[in-house]
Write a structure and sequence with these properties.
Blueprint: H1 7-20, E1 38-41, E2 44-47, H2 61-78, H3 84-95, E3 99-100, E4 104-106, E5 109-115, E6 123-128, E7 134-137, E8 148-155, E9 161-168, E10 173-180, E11 186-195, E12 200-201, E13 207-212, E14 230-235, E15 244-247, E16 256-261, E17 267-273, E18 281-286, E19 295-298, E20 305-311, E21 314-319, E22 327-332, E23 339-342, E24 348-355, E25 358-365, E26 368-375, E27 380-383, E28 391-397, E29 403-410, E30 413-421, E31 426-431, E32 442-450, E33 456-464, E34 475-478, H4 493-500, E35 504-508, H5 518-522, H6 530-545, E36 554-559, H7 561-572, E37 579-583, H8 602-605, H9 611-620, E38 634-640, H10 649-660, E39 668-673, H11 684-702
Parallel strand pairs: 34-35, 34-36, 36-37, 37-38, 38-39
Antiparallel strand pairs: 1-2, 3-5, 4-5, 5-6, 6-7, 8-9, 9-10, 10-11, 12-13, 13-14, 14-15, 16-17, 17-18, 18-19, 20-21, 21-22, 22-23, 24-25, 25-26, 26-27, 28-29, 29-30, 30-31, 32-33, 33-35
Length: 707
Amino acid sequence: MSFRPALAAALLLTQTQAFMMPASAAIAYPPTATVPQVDVQHGVKVADPYRWLEGDVRTQKPVADWVAAQNQVTQAYLATLPGRDALKARLTELFNYERVTLPEARGNAVFFRKNSGLQNQSVLMVQEGDTPARPLIDPNLWAKDGATALAEWSPSPDGKRVAYAIQDGGTDWRTLRVIDVGSGAVLSDDLDWVKFSGLAWNADSTGFFYSRHPATDKGKDFVSAVYDHSVWFHRIGTPQSADTLVFASPDNRGYYNNAQTSEDGRWLIIRSSTGSDDTYEVRVKDLTDPKAVLTTLVPKRANDWRFLGAHGETLYFVTNLDAPRYRVVAFDKASKTPREIISEGTTTLTGGSIIGETLLVTALQDARTSVRRYSLAGKPDGEVTLPGLGTASGFDAVPGSNTAYYAFTSYNAPTTLYRYDAKANTSTVFAAPKVAFDPADYVVEQRFFTSKDGTRVPMFIAHKKGLDLSKGAPTLMYGYGGFNINVLPAFQVDALSWMEMGGVYAEVTLRGGGEYGAAWHDAGKQLKKQNVFDDFIAGGEYLIKSGITPKGGLAIQGGSNGGLLVGAVVNQRPDLFAAALPAVGVMDMLRFPLFTEGRTWTDDYGDPADAVQFKNLLGYSPYHNVKSGKPYPAILVTTADTDDRVVPGHSFKYTAALQAADIGDKPHLIRIETRAGHGSGKPTSKQIDEIADLWSFIGYWTGLTRK
């Protein structure tokens, strides 16, 4: 690999020019070295001149230098955009409200996370009896840049200890610790090599089950694929070397094995999957029986199994076995054959819980939540009244009671927490935020449009009340469309700020998600992935045709699998969009299985090692399909140097391809965050800075900020 000696001088000149450029001027991008690299796959020659950008930015100086040069040019350009400072100031005001997460009650204590407003990380609070809540774990004290976060946490059944995970710089790797609730002392327990793990305590609070990978000599790798995920039991006060292996899958080294325990602590449930496809093997163990062993309930990974709860010797699951929209079944201790409790209906069941003697089931009707009540035998018993059109979540029972907590949110409704009495079927507000805007000033509606193949697709549209749409308004359209993940109405400060400025916010319920059950998911995966892109394109066409959005006023956004979505549709219909924001996207569809968790995504995308799947993947891969000769929209790619979920090399290579192509004079830039990972644990300050940059960018190119 060779680099031109004059690169440093050229970059310095580029930076100086960029600061003086008006926003509409063409940009001189930093030079990106090309290295001859052609692979022959299934008889097809595939060029990959930017493969060197797959290197770890933390250890390979050429990649680090490229990142620094790109960031300098991008920041210089963003500094020329009008209104960015005012937007950042307003975002700071909007973020500055108290946020509380769903509480968990254990023993005599109630635990919840709280952010006073502008804290970089939320603080874990504990309230014991009638005493005021007090801070128990404050991750804001862990790092000066605020980028070390409290990730997963779980209180012991007696409420005397909390096991918790530390996430540094946005990585998926975790370190586990245990804190004594009474004294606030962090115990000697220190567990490493943890990734994608639950924390499931045993009934007597002496230890917990967790999942980890083997230790290696290479350290916590941010690029290479990882295998051999296994379940362990850790007894409090002992070293990790003394932990007991509970379950491993050596015949399926790529499986992710995760443990849960029932609310009463009696049952251990282990679900095994590839990590990206919702099909599971299921094993259970009666922890009250010293002679019990793990029993296999579901031996073949073919369907989704979501543990709902246990009542005595009966275990309840939500499953799509013989029911694409899901049903509820139960396993009795003496049987490995499930019996049906609630049959499949016209809505999609998503989960549930057992609260006292009430079986509560959540469902989606056109991507809106409903919550239904049943007896444990499956007899209907009415519904839970929700505040409006939106998303309800939670409903985990407080052990030994008829009480649960749940959250409700929508695009114009900041998350409010409720205390639910299952016996009386009543809800009371537990925590309601005080925000710097009036939710009544915004409206949310759901519309439907027709995709390319005639499929009816939903879209949520939100905007400020009274907005004159007679000539259309700049619109931001968001989508995901993959991995059976539901995109549901939820309050987001960034979307609210866009609407407050006079824009329209739209979310499309794309195929590939699970909003309409297994068939909806299957219609957007592998060889049918193009349906997802067609749905998104049709959504954009609908917004313009209906007059909601003017031509030249449509911006699009998506992250991770949604970043792939944005990259693919821009290549296919560059004329439709004014601006695009692909975030942490999967951009090289031929090499994604080679890095970190990428091997698990073949269930949804298909495997490039297969000739038929290869042809399909190559046909839409964003990196491989940037085509010169047509003007592209303005594009601001975002990623992070410590993203070990979708490695940043995807975005680096895609950006290099954009900048090398003849696709017009609009900017094609990349914004690379430091110590931010795939997104979780990102400090509030970094969120505000990023949103200000993104909205200034798309606002300028859709005409919003020019008003």
